Design the sequence.
């Protein structure tokens, strides 16, 4: 089969070449990939730092061409959306059936491929916060891929949503996705009504400021670290006595929280197929142009998701 592999001598560290077809385990289905999407972690770390010859890629959508031999998962011909630690950027992909979501027939699989890591992380981070109906939720890095899904899902869940972005020009777009208020200066968070939950996607000073915005028993879910900065909490920030107490910081990694993920992906795909969830695809091209697309995403010149069609 054809696949994109890590090649640090090639432009963009990627080469389109021929590799052996994957051999599925008993609990895996073989998928013919139609489209895959790019994520920030892939363009910043996996591509430039990956092992030579490996096939990268977390997100892909396609059609089942060989079902799992243990009887689990969807049947041949089923359109699906998949996630895994690697192997998505190829014509064929072997995937554990418990992380396969089914897709309504006739749905464009390109936008569906944008769901797994970004929308899956958004949904499960909100689950970690707990009930959000009638509560206040803060989203940092709201203009990124995960952030845009989080705004939509939090608003759908009945939350009052505050979006934090460094770019004031994104305000109208983020309001259209469900944000009730926009914050562009972290110092502003000190003066807002405290929030019940935070989906934190930036790290560094953003995490410190967002934690300070939590009400008593609030939960901050750290699901992204795009700043590359560490966190330094000022003395007293983590005190409970005399302050808002029992404020939690929870770490999160989607592939370590995969129980039931296939059902979540099925639900997200159905929402998208009905037009009730917008994947915000801002760039779509074929896989001969993936290096250029990755560079655009890494340079933060893609206001949404980048989707690559396998051709």
Sequence:
């Amino acid at each position: 089969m054809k696949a994109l592999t890590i090649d640090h001598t090639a432009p963009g560290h990627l080469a389109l070449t021929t590799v052996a077809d994957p051999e599925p385990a008993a609990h895996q289905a073989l998928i013919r990939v139609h489209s895959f999407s790019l994520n920030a972690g892939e363009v910043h770390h996996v591509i430039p730092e990956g092992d030579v010859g490996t096939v990268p890629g977390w997100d892909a959508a396609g059609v089942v061409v060989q079902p799992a031999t243990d009887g689990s998962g969807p049947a041949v011909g089923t359109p699906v959306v998949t996630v895994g630690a690697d192997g998505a950027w190829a014509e064929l992909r072997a995937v554990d059936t418990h992380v396969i979501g089914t897709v309504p027939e006739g749905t464009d699989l390109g936008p569906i491929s944008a769901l797994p890591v970004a929308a899956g992380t958004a949904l499960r981070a909100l689950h970690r916060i707990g009930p959000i109906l009638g509560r206040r939720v803060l989203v940092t890095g709201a203009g990124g891929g995960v952030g845009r899904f989080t705004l939509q899902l939090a608003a759908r869940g009945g939350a009052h949503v505050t979006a934090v972005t460094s770019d004031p020009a994104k305000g109208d777009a983020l309001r259209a996705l469900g944000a009730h208020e926009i914050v562009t200066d972290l110092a502003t968070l000190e003066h807002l009504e405290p929030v019940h939950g935070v989906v934190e996607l930036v790290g560094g000073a953003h995490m410190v400021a967002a934690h300070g915005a939590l009400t008593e028993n609030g939960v901050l879910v750290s699901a992204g670290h795009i700043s590359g900065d560490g966190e330094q909490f000022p003395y007293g920030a983590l005190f409970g006595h005399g302050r808002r107490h029992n404020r939690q910081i929870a770490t999160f990694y989607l592939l370590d929280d995969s129980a039931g993920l296939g059902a979540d992906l099925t639900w997200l795909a159905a929402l998208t197929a009905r037009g009730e969830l917008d994947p915000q695809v801002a760039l779509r091209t074929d896989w001969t142009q993936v290096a250029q697309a990755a560079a655009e995403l890494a340079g933060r010149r893609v206001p949404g998701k980048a989707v690559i069609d396998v051709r």
